[in-house]
Amino acid sequence: MGRRRASQLLAGYRQFLVGRPTPSSHEQSISGSYWKLNTWRPCCMFRVSVGTPQASNYLNLGKTYAIKQRSFGSAATDIRRNPAFSKLNADDISYFRTILGERNVVEDEDRLSAANVDWMRKYQGSSKLLLLPKSSQEVSKILHHCNSRKLAVVPQGGNTGLVGGSVPVHDEVIINLALMDKIVSLDKINGILVCEGGCILENLSSFLENEGFIMPLDLGAKGSCQIGGNISTNAGGLRFVRYGSLHGTILGLEVVLANGTILDMLGTLRKDNTGYDLKHLFIGSEGSLGIVTKVSILTPPKLMSMNLAFLACKDFTSCQKLLLEAKRALGGVLSAFEFMDRHSMDLVLSHLDGVRSPLPSSLYNFYILVETTGSDETYDKTKLEAFLLRSMEEGLILDGVVAQDINQSSSFWRIREGISEASVKVGAVYKYDLSLPVDQFYGIVEEMRNRLGEAAKVVGYGHLGDGNLHLNIMTTRYDSDILAQIEPYVYEWTSKHKGSISAEHGLGLMKANKIHYSKSPETVQLMADIKKLLDPNLILNPYKKILDLFAICN
Q1: Distance (Å, rounded) from C-alpha 469 to C-alpha 472?
Q2: What is the pLDDT of residues 84-129, one digit of tens each?
Q3: 13: left (phi > 0), else alpha (psi -120 to 50), else beta?
Q4: 68 with 165, same domain?
Q5: Same domain, 503 and 461
Q6: What is the pTM of this model?
Q7: Residues 6 or more apart in contact with residue 60 via CB below 8 angstroms
Q8: How far apart are CA 504 and CA 339, in angstroms?
Q9: Which domain holds residue 549?
């Protein structure tokens, strides 16, 4: 592409007409108030507004839980209930009422039905009890009792997970932290936030933005997910390329162990090299080692300049080169580098109302979203322009458009965040969350297309900036023959190419018996030893993470 053509595309940031956004939620932007396009969030029944009592939402839990489609992953496994666990009885329920009161010990069938099933309606337990503690001390008393009685429990946050990690397998007692939603403190000099584990991610983001900071984590499910659950799954999200994983931004935790011990690691220091840094054990442990009740997290300042470009590339090699060029040219202002293939775009345009292509003149093979955030609008814009101009001259970009305002930015993100929503409208969808070297990132997508042919539609999208691929395979209905062609091939291919079978969703129940594809036997044994030390009765989130944990520990 010549300089003249590239300059024409960039001149004035090519105007792109988008429909008027739906005035569904009034939010604050860096430039003031605006009406933001609706963005899809899975499991929205837990969504709350700042200042609204969580309890009133939970009363309607059963009524608002409505999922129309099903998603599928690993083959169904017949998991036998651990005979070492006790059965819940009337005395247990009476004891919990003395701690929590009548209102927060839930036996209502509608609300239990909602809490027993994941948002995709793939996994369903048979718990008879939902507990809603309001403090760490109440969580401690609950776990102390459950441990002494050998009652299995499942910690639950917003229940937005995709691998069945937050719902019971059998009759485990559900402990949901929705009522533990207090912001404890904010250090406005250093940007250190301390809050309870049940805080909704979007509520934290809104609070921080009003104070001049942002959360280092941003997810499509932010209106429903809880920060404690984010930590337990080590959620990645859209800002990973800029701010890294939660292992780097979490400064401290308060965790309640299986025996009720409250482990106070709630430090707010940037540096503390005294002994083992135990908080990292609980980040990504999926509630199997303890329940996160308080969090200390380092939050970056809210930057006043944001630019978002929606770009088209001819092939995946161009996408790879564009990523390298973006890192070199944009450096510290690069905040997101999102990838989706032509099939992902076609899926969204076909199944989501009101979504239009930012590049309507043609359907390209690959699309990239590049976001920059900084403190100097003129400097950042000039830097982005130079990057785009050079990339177009080198033929890495075929076409592109830069958002002119927050409404256009929202419409661009709507496409990327709407892929999951669109996929479940096809019928059955098999979802895989893989971490791969960038040079192998798209290989498994092409392999699965060749392997499945016309039997399934395969789409690939994700966080190219950190090597996280979301592989979705869609068919009109669930088919065990199709699943047999997918698994274990997907896991074997990922392992062969030195990848991970779980980039950010965790293992949960879906991949608990697949851990050996990413971890050595010695590593798994050490994990089991740690689990046995912290939870000797194995009551915390059983049957997850490592499926044969009971056998390993005994």
Answers
A1: 10
A2: 999 999 999 999 999 999 999 999 999 999 999 987 778 899 999 9
A3: left
A4: yes
A5: yes
A6: 0.83
A7: 45
A8: 16
A9: 520-553
